[in-house]
Amino acid sequence: MTIVIIEDEPAIADTLVHILEMDGFDVHWFTTAGAGCEYLQQHPADLLILDVGLPDGNGFDVCKQLRQFSAIPIIFLTARSDEIDRVVGLEIGADDYVTKPFSPREMLARVKLRLKKLHPPLTSVATEQAPKWQAKNFDYYYKGAALGLTALEFKLLDVLITHTPRVLSRAQLLDATQAPADCGYERNIDSHIKAIRVKMKRYNCAESLKTKRGFGYYFEDMA
Question: Is 23 in contact with 108 (CB distance < 8 Å)?
Answer without folding.
Answer: yes
